[in-house]
Design a protein that fits this description.
Oligomer: single chain
Strand order of the largest sheet: 1-4
Strand content: 5-15%
Largest sheet: 2 strands, antiparallel
Order of helices and strands: HHHEEEEHHHHH
Number of strands: 4
Helix content: over 70%
Radius of gyration: 49 Å
Shape: elongated
Amino acid sequence: MTDSIATAPGAADHAASEIAVPRLADPIASMASPPLNLTAEQMAPVPQLAPAEATAPSTSAAIAAPADRRARRARSIIGLTVDSFVSACSFIPYALVALALRLVMARLFFLDGQTRIEGPRVPINVLDFDFSVVLPLQVKVETFGAFLTQYAALPVSPVLGAYLLSYAEFILPICLLLGFGTRFAALGMLFMTALIQIYVTPDALWSVQVYWAAILLVLLTRGPGQISVDAIIRFTARR
């Protein structure tokens, strides 16, 4: 009895809501604008691309493709050429390069030192190449005179400078040629080059001294290479 009384109001509310919904839908539908009945002629036409415009992307792509292939081929040829050249240069060992640099600088300083000393002349024949070496028994008088006039600006006494330069230009080139104490020899010759540049011929930097300094710096930083007494000593010490 009580259950039937409790459920009666809920059923009445549900029935009332079902009646109210259609009544609200009718005014809303009347407010909406009536649908348009347009024919196919009245509808706005969709713009169509011209034939030339439609084929333009494919034409430009067809033109650009061969050009891109040619550019890639040209880049590959240039890159291959550069890589081949670099590989060919890498086959030249530094030992030969260092030997050539040592020969150049040793000859330059040694021949200049031979003009400053007096002593017995020793003939040397190597592979049918005859030359003679003057042993530094004493320093020439002309060398002392040059240090009193031409090299007077050097920060050493003329007598001491004459002896130091004359014997250094005999010993250091031989060490450089043999590759014995190469870095010390290169450092000593670089120091002499700097003194000549600063105090004797300051205007000859870009004509002479800069090239001497560049070669000596290579030997000072990279060493004499494998064709040297230093390399033999290093190899023996590591065994």
